[in-house]
Write the structure tokens for this entry.
Amino acid sequence: MRFNVILPVVVVVASAQNVLGGLLAYGLCQTGCNVLAAACYAAAGATFGTIAAPAAPAAVVGCNGALGTCMAACSVAVIAPTP
């Protein structure tokens, strides 16, 4: 039996279960970011998702920047092994 062929396959299959958990963590992280962004918009007196970028007040632009930073931080959750 050739272990140099079988071993990588076993490692990939065994680690695939952890990757699925990472997708769940990513989804939860994205949801949290959107909830915080909606709260930020409400504090600025706006409704999340209804303002076009060129017409956005400075407070909403700040909310969008924070949302982008939060979502970028969530990208780590995709590759992090989560049991």
